[in-house]
Design brief:
199 residues, alpha+beta, 4-stranded mixed β-sheet, 3-stranded antiparallel β-sheet, 4 helices, 10 strands, 19% strand
């Protein structure tokens, strides 16, 4: 009786079952591979790569530069602007084109000496949430073409100074060189000339 039932099943169905099973096994295999990719991303997160930010959200970390240790997102330097107010961005339009806000994607997390309690977000007038640190809205600089570059440090574009941000939340006013990724930092880790004022 089992043979007669099998004989009545159309040939395309008989051929389709093994193909569907193979596709299902392949899909399950790639799903199983995803967690190991995720664990590699967490390793990449430690180095501040862009792939970790895409996988886990915005990760604010720190980087040792010649002028002191400063905050980064995905390896890119982040800045504060002296024209901003506490938890309020005054940079929009052309300003935001030159100094793109650090936008929150997924969960905003801290790494490498960054204080989670100092992280926050504010609403942008055009939509989305901008990441803040110790009340400072954070920005990238369009003139930084790669991780660790600090070409915006000390700029006074749009009428006020732009500074790197220390893990303490204060501005770093000391000069920093773009090629200082391997420059040794003083053992005290001090950020001379750092100031937390909004004035």
């Amino acid at each position: 009786m089992g043979k007669s039932l099998l004989a009545r099943v159309p040939a395309p169905v008989k051929l389709g079952v093994p193909v569907a099973a193979g596709l299902l096994a392949a899909a399950c295999g790639s799903a199983v591979a995803s967690p190991s990719h995720g664990s590699q991303s967490s390793g990449a997160q430690a180095s501040g790569s862009h792939s970790s930010a895409a996988t886990t959200g915005t990760v604010i970390a720190s980087h040792a530069g010649s002028g002191g240790t400063f905050l980064t997102d995905g390896g890119r330097s982040v800045y504060l602007w002296n024209a901003d107010a506490m938890n309020k961005s005054n940079c929009s339009g052309a300003c935001a084109g030159a100094w793109p806000p650090v936008m929150a994607t997924g969960k905003v997390t801290a790494a490498h000496g960054v204080k989670p309690s100092d992280l926050g977000t504010i609403a942008r007038s055009g939509g989305g949430k901008q990441v803040t640190y110790n009340g400072h809205p954070l920005y990238f600089f369009a003139g930084d073409s790669g991780p660790g570059q600090t070409n915006g440090q000390g700029s006074d574009s749009f009428g006020a100074k732009w500074w790197l941000v220390a893990p303490s939340g204060s501005q770093i006013t000391a000069a920093d060189t773009a090629a200082s990724a391997s420059a040794p930092m003083s053992s005290s880790g001090s950020n001379s000339s750092a100031s937390g004022s909004w004035g």
